[in-house]
């Protein structure tokens, strides 16, 4: 099988290059003040600067958009956990039969592309509760919905690997009250799932463009789309930063779950 | 048995993985219809030997012959042997009938005949009517039966079993063990059975080959190996063994607790040694009877027909187990009794002097 | 005897046969979740269909039927074609990567690196990814320039990052790792013991792949294809950014029917297109989930 190994290495190297090269190009464009036409061996090391980046990240528009995105992300994480943690715990402890139903509900967001969802939001809510949609924070529940497949799965996987119901019964039979049981038995087993769900939701919200832009909310991706014209380099650095942050969030999370990766992507966003 | 046709023969097969010698100079002949068990702890080389027979490993030196033909370098898929794996290895996308028929399909047997033979094999392993089930719908024991049918349906020259019972629970294991033996002897195929469980080995083998660290320790019938172990490893590995520290008084007499025991064997005087004795070589008598040692009963384990009585030898701080027919046992814990050692059966393990 | 956990008083009680109401009551515990999903997902979705079934402007047919005629149909088909192509390419390359990773079994570190990055890359996308490719292969792209130095002029060859082929390449950036992640468990599942069993039963390498290897991989291959198809079909942001909103993909086209805050007369068609998108997604995702269940059953 030695022959195979050579092809395998070549393939992986090529694919790896495909993954890395665009990022390098993006970085180069962001940080080097040399137009591509003038790029050559002599100019390769000239004019590397952080200036466009500073311009971008200190601009009012960026700060406004970035701050909104961060707030939306935090609120989405909190709302997600608020709804999902009690639900998953309840299902695992009290009503396992409901698990299939809950899982089905959590997968439904996949079949509704964000673009279709935003169309539906307009149709349904613009006439009935227009004041709701005018606030930028109206995005939060929709973001929770979009991230639902990932956040539910993160929490569920953590709880599925242990028999929570038996643990709770054991704790109760040993005399622990509800509060104690929640604190000592339920919460520790949720830790990993909560961290994963939070990171995923955060990454999803930061990068979400479709709904935000069509509901005319000024989030980070919307900023990037807008500022592309004025300060392309700076905007690209923001994009790079966003990629790096997302990659870090997802990478750390992948580390924690040790490779039992989240299979479906958030691309349609 | 010598007149039986020799089917498989290992000659001086050696195999190393890096620095580790997995198999050292392995010699074994297996006759038609014979079930030989390779028995030993993990790492003893039994699985390596089996895989060499199957063709999944190539020995570094030495040969394997099938009916006198050297097959050492023959690829696995040409060897006409049937193998049963520890984790069943059934093809998950095929139902039982298709799994069983796979070996026939590969050999070009027509579908109609294939199905007929497969169904017959499935019936033989008592899975009648389950032909349309898929592996994930079967229990462990059922899956292993399918594996067995699959391996035997094309009438291979040799049957190879790689710890087939290890993944099953106790009750299923015992049942399947006997069925494997029955099937194997009905079909009359030369068989290599690999296991680390000496109970299994003793109960179904024609011969047992005990291995340790790549070396063969003893090859013999279960009776031979149990009653006349070749060395102390075999003695301890197969069956239970009592161990008693003794002082050797003179050339053939061991001294236990002041009692001289004739050891029937010349021993160097003065060496501190151990006497190894099977539980069934110890019996109980009245305290003070001639040639008996004084002891106190410290426990009894009733197993139906037999009872294992645990006795602490007075002044000796050794606990021995005596296996007795339950009807003959009439003692209570704490009672003082006499213990008779059948020294004809004893094995002496010399101490290092 | 069961310990009734939620009795609130820690009491031990016998479980008597439950009446209907008693059986239904526990389900109220999941109602907050169900209501949330109902409001923020199902209500908008139903609304899409409700509007989609209204007559389109200047026609008596429901908008949904109108949407699959003429020019509107072409954008749906365009999206489907694009999705199918990226799904196919992603399927082939992603599977090869999975096989490569598994066969280089000894190099654990390499596998971890590839899997780790795939987990990240499958989830990257949108605007930043579009930026990265514009910087690479756009008109002023770094590699466009490098290639032209070697005499390969991309724009002469008719390649533009905003066009069909450009979007295909960009989509591959997340399609390939997604397929890799889908296929890895399946390729792993071709355990060596199955190979040995087949070999022992007399199968040559070719026979093994034909009867065992490929059949075992097929559900995952098809399921992966459907997943990738759905993924590409529903994508919006990346295509939007690459084409500056001008793409012929149906997801980007819908936008034109929702101009800002007002809903133009043609909007029922927008809803219709959205409704068809949902239907395509339901079909694709159901297929994926069904096939995934089959392959997981086999790997039990």
As laid out across the biggest beta sheet of chain B, the strand order is 6-7-8-3-9-10
Sheet with most strands of chain A: none
Average pLDDT score of chain A: 82
Number of domains of chain A: 2
Shape, per Cα inertia axes of chain A: globular
Give the helix proportion of chain A (percent range).
Answer: over 70%
The secondary structure category of chain A is mainly alpha
For the record, the CATH class of the largest domain in chain A is Mainly Alpha
Number of alpha- plus pi-helical segments of chain B: 8
Oligomer: heterotrimer
Taken as a percent bin, the fraction of beta residues of chain B is 35-45%
Q: Runs of chain B with pLDDT <50, length 5+?
A: none
The CATH architecture of the largest domain in chain A comes to Orthogonal Bundle
SSE string of chain A, helix = H, strand = E? HHHHHHHHHHHH
Largest interface: pair, residues per side: A-C, 103 and 99 residues
| Terminal-residue CA separation of chain B | 43 Å
From the alpha carbons, calculate the radius of gyration of chain B and give it in angstroms: 25 Å
**Helix/strand order of chain B:** EEEHEEEHHHEHEHEEHHEEEEEEEEEE
Describe the structure.
The complex is a heterotrimer of chains A (269), B (353) and C (300). In chain A, 77% of the residues lie in helices and 0% in strands. Chain A has 269 residues and is mostly helical. The longest helix of chain A has 35 residues, at 60-94. The two termini of chain A are 42 Å apart. Residues 261-269 of chain A have low confidence and may be disordered. Chain B has helices at 46-54, 96-106, 111-124, 140-152, 170-187, 198-204, 222-227, 232-237; strands at 6-17, 20-31, 35-39, 61-66, 69-70, 81-84, 158-162, 190-195, 207-212, 215-220, 242-250, 253-256, 259-262, 272-277, 282-285, 293-302, 306-313, 318-325, 336-341, 347-350. In chain B, strand 16 (293-302) and strand 17 (306-313) form a beta hairpin. The mean pLDDT of chain B is 87. Chain B has 353 residues and is of the alpha+beta class. Chain C has 300 residues and is mainly alpha-helical. Chain C has one domain (58-299): MetI-like (MetI-like fold, Orthogonal Bundle). Helices cover 69% and strands 1% of the residues of chain C. In chain C, 48% of the residues are buried. Chains in contact: A-C, B-C. At the A-C interface, helix 1, helix 3, helix 4, helix 5 and helix 7 of A face helix 2, helix 4, helix 5, helix 6 and helix 7 of C.
């Amino acid at each position: 099988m030695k022959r195979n190994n050579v092809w395998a290495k070549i393939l992986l190297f090529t694919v790896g290059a495909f993954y890395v090269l665009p990022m390098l190009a993006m970085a180069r464009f962001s940080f080097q003040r040399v137009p591509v036409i003038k790029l050559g061996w002599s100019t390769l090391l000239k004019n590397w600067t952080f200036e466009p980046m500073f311009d971008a990240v200190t601009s009012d528009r960026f700060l406004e958009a970035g701050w909104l995105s961060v707030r939306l992300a935090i609120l989405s994480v909190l709302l997600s956990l608020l709804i999902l943690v009690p639900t998953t715990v309840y299902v695992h402890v009290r009503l396992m039969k409901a698990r299939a139903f809950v899982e089905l509900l959590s997968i439904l967001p996949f079949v509704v592309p964000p673009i279709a969802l935003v169309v539906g939001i307009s149709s349904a809510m613009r006439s009935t509760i227009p004041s709701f949609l005018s606030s930028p924070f109206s995005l939060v529940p929709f973001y929770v919905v979009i991230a639902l497949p990932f956040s539910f799965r993160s929490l569920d996987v953590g709880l599925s690997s242990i028999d929570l119901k038996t643990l709770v019964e054991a704790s109760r039979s040993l005399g622990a009250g509800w509060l104690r049981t929640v604190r000592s038995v339920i919460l520790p087993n949720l830790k990993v799932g909560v961290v994963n769900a939070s990171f995923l939701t955060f990454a999803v919200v930061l990068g979400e463009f479709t709904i935000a832009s069509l509901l005319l909310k000024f989030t980070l991706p919307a900023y990037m789309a807008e500022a592309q014209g004025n300060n392309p380099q700076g905007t690209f650095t923001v994009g790079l930063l966003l990629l790096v942050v997302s990659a870090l969030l997802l990478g750390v999370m992948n580390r924690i779950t040790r490779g039992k990766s989240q299979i479906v992507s958030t691309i349609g966003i | 048995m010598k007149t039986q046709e020799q089917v498989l023969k290992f000659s001086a097969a050696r195999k190393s993985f890096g620095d580790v010698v997995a198999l050292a100079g392995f010699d074994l002949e297996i006759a038609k219809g014979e079930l030989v068990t390779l028995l030993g702890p993990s790492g003893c080389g039994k699985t390596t030997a089996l895989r060499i027979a199957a063709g999944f490993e190539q020995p570094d030196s030495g040969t394997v012959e099938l009916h006198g033909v050297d097959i050492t370098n023959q690829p696995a898929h040409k060897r006409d042997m049937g193998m049963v794996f520890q984790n069943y290895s059934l093809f998950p996308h095929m139902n039982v009938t298709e799994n069983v028929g796979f070996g026939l399909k590969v050999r070009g047997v027509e579908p109609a005949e294939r199905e007929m033979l497969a169904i017959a094999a499935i019936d033989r392993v008592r899975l009648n009517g389950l032909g349309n089930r898929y592996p994930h719908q079967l229990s462990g024991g059922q899956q292993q039966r399918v594996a067995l049918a699959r391996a035997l349906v094309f009438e291979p020259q040799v049957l190879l079993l790689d710890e087939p019972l290890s993944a099953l629970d106790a009750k299923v294991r015992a049942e399947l063990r006997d069925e494997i033996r029955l099937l194997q002897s009905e079909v009359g195929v030369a068989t290599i059975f690999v296991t680390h469980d000496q109970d299994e080995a003793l109960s179904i083998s024609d011969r047992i080959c005990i291995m340790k660290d790549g070396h063969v320790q003893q090859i013999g019938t279960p009776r031979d190996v149990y009653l006349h172990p070749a060395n102390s490893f075999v003695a301890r590995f197969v069956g239970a063994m009592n161990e008693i520290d003794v002082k050797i008084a003179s050339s053939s007499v061991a001294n236990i607790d002041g009692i001289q025991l004739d050891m029937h064997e010349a021993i160097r005087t003065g060496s501190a040694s151990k006497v190894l004795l099977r539980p069934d070589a110890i019996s109980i008598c009245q305290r003070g009877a001639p040639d008996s040692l004084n002891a106190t009963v410290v426990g009894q384990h009733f197993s139906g027909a037999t009872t294992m009585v645990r006795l602490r030898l007075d002044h000796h701080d050794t606990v021995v187990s005596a296996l007795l027919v339950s009807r003959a046992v009439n003692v209570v814990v704490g009672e003082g009794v006499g213990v008779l050692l059948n020294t004809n059966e004893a094995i002496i393990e010399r101490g290092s002097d | 005897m069961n310990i009734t956990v939620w009795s609130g008083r820690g009491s031990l009680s016998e479980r008597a046969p439950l009446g209907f109401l008693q059986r239904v009551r526990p389900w109220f515990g999941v109602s907050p979740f169900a209501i949330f999903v109902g409001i923020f997902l199902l209500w908008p979705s139903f609304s899409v269909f409700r509007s989609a079934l209204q007559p389109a402007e200047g026609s008596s047919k429901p908008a949904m039927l109108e949407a699959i005629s003429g020019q509107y149909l072409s954008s749906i088909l365009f999206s489907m074609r694009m999705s199918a192509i990226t799904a196919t390419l992603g399927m082939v390359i992603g599977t090869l990567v999975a096989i490569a990773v598994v066969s280089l079994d000894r190099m654990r570190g390499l596998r971890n690196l590839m899997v780790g990055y795939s987990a990240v890359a499958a989830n990257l996308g949108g605007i930043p990814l579009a930026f990265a490719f514009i910087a690479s292969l756009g008109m002023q792209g770094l590699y466009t320039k490098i290639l032209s130095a070697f005499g390969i002029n991309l724009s002469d060859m008719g390649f533009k990052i905003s066009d069909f082929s450009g979007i295909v390449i960009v989509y591959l950036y997340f399609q390939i790792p997604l397929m890799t992640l889908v296929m890895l468990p399946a390729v792993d599942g071709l355990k060596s013991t199955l190979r040995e069993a087949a070999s022992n039963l007399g199968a040559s390498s070719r026979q093994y792949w034909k009867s065992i290897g490929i059949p075992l991989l097929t559900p995952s291959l098809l399921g992966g294809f459907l997943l990738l198809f759905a993924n590409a079909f529903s994508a919006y942001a990346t295509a939007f950014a690459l084409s500056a909103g001008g793409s012929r993909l149906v997801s980007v086209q819908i936008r034109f029917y929702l101009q800002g805050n007002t809903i133009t007369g043609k909007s029922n068609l927008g809803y219709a297109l959205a409704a068809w998108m949902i239907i395509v997604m339901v079909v694709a995702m159901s297929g994926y989930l069904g096939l995934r269940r089959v392959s997981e059953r086999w790997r039990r």
